[in-house]
Amino acid sequence: MIRREVLSLIRRAEAGADLGRDELAFLLSLEGEEQKALFGAADRVRARTMGDGVHLRGLIEFSNICRMDCCYCGIRRSNRHVRRYRMAPEEIVAAAQGASRLGYGSVVLQSGEGDALDPEELAGVVRQIKATTPLAVTLSVGERTREEYALWREAGADRFLLRHETADPELFARLRPGRRLEQRVQCLLWLRELGYQVGSGFMVGLPGQTVETIADDILLLRKLNVEMAGIGPFIPAPNTPLADAAAGTVDRTLNAVACTRLTLQDAHLPATTALGSIHPRGRQLALACGANVIMPNVTPGRYRDHYQLYPNKICLREEPEHCAPCVTALILGEGRFVATGPGHSPRWTS
């Protein structure tokens, strides 16, 4: 039985109404048949606004060197059990060219928040990728100066992914020692000013998080008007202060994906690797409740073991050419198809 007030709220959200904090928190708590109704609405919005194509974005984890000491992260500065690495610029370019040959429309260059490549080196990598492939390029290298963001944008970077992780300022400060949420948001505002397609996102299930703070996460994404939002479960990592904390759940994470689709109807939403790491069909479940992007790992196999933000990450032993047919089969199995082209935001091309 689905309550009348639940159906009414879901219908309003599906029609594009701007829900408030309490309304989002209510939807985030749904279970059973009411949760299925939420997922159905999110999937219909996805189909209407983004179509049935699933965009593939090749992920290149080019360095695990990090200056931050985030309490949840497996590559935090204080973790002495991590073998640090840095891919050479030519290796990064070669990995991107390989992703292009596999038919991917874009790549994401991701690293710890460190100085594995100096700003000019990274700009050179972006220029080389843009000159030798048709790929869109996303950077995900953390909080940097406005000048560095401008340099990379001028070099040709199309997008930047900077997850805010949590919109609760106190929780943010506890999880990211020495950093403040307002600094993170300022970086996102700079990226918007510089003309990037902006991505952010958050974790679900963090210690101390409530459905109300998840609602605040979604409202922050709406306020920032992001073109992409990555949402995944918190997974406790060994050798971190939160190693013994409870993990985020599949159901709450899927509810967050669905509510984000209803709130940001024309944004790209990945079916995250983290969801696929805690449930064998995690990515498929996300595709059924609003997601329209998958990010296959195209990092050379010899580096993958050393970029573990959380344990039991899927696809650590596979080379890029092995992931492509697997991900394609996953998408086709859900009645969807692999989208072609760079997968720019609808707002970018309209």
Automatic annotation (TrEMBL):
Its EC number(s): 2.8.1.6
Stored InterPro entries: Aldolase_TIM, BATS_dom, Elp3/MiaA/NifB-like_rSAM, FeFe-hyd_HydE_rSAM, HydE/PylB-like, rSAM, rSAM_sf
Highest taxon of source: Bacteria
Names of required cofactors: [4Fe-4S] cluster; [2Fe-2S] cluster
Radical SAM core domain ranges (all copies): 52-275
Enzyme class: transferase
A GO molecular-function descriptor: biotin synthase activity
PANTHER family: 3-METHYLORNITHINE SYNTHASE (PTHR43726), BIOTIN SYNTHASE (PTHR43726:SF1)
Pfam families per the UniProt record, alphabetical: Radical_SAM
Key words, A-Z: 4Fe-4S, Iron, Iron-sulfur, Metal-binding, S-adenosyl-L-methionine, Transferase
Protein name, entry field: Biotin synthase
Xref: PROSITE patterns: RADICAL_SAM (PS51918)
